[in-house]
């Protein structure tokens, strides 16, 4: 199996509902997503996928969708307030944990035809979540 990994940095804010701890308050992270792509055979160029294509397609999507956004649970009472004030935010169906954000990125990459095998989302320099099928 051949594997390549592209690292994508982005910033986001969030808070967790039904959570007791500091993360129940609005706060932000400088995230690092490690996008692992794998294939059993290389293409005609000798690549799993061109790093530049990952940058142009997936990093651009992350920049437009998640970067510098407040990522919230759809049940968060801030959603109507942010919508009314035209602040940038993004809604997930569940709490915006590192685990659910990693799966969200994985699912999008898969839908776009990337041979994604794993997303590792670093929330801090010491903590990350991984999603793989």
Could you outline the blueprint of secondary structure elements for this entry?
Layout: E1 2-14, E2 27-39, H1 51-65, E3 69-73, H2 78-85, E4 89-92, H3 98-111, E5 116-124, E6 127-131
Parallel strand pairs: 1-3, 3-4
Antiparallel strand pairs: 1-2, 2-5, 5-6
Walk me through this protein's architecture:
It is a single chain. With 133 residues, this protein is α/β, with parallel strands linked by helices. The protein has one domain: Tetrahydropterin Synthase, Chain A. It is built from three helices and six strands; from the N terminus they run ββαβαβαββ. It has a six-stranded mixed beta sheet with strand order 4-3-1-2-5-6, with helices on both faces. The longest helix is centred in the middle third of the chain and has 15 residues. The two termini are 16 Å apart. The mean pLDDT is 97.
List the keywords.
133 residues, alpha/beta, Tetrahydropterin Synthase, Chain A, elongated
């Amino acid at each position: 199996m051949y594997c390549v990994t592209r690292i994508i940095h982005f910033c986001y804010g969030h808070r967790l509902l039904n959570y007791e701890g500091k993360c129940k308050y609005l706060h932000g992270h400088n995230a690092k997503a490690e996008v692992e792509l794998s294939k059993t055979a290389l293409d005609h160029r000798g690549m799993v996928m061109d790093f530049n294509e990952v940058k142009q397609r997936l990093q651009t999507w992350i920049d437009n969708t998640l970067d510098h956004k407040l990522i919230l649970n759809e049940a968060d009472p801030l959603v109507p307030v942010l919508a009314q004030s035209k602040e940038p935010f993004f809604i997930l169906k569940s709490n915006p944990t590192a685990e659910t954000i990693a799966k969200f990125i994985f699912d999008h990459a898969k839908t776009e035809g990337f041979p994604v095998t794993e997303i590792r989302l670093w929330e801090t320099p010491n903590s990350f979540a991984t999603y793989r099928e």
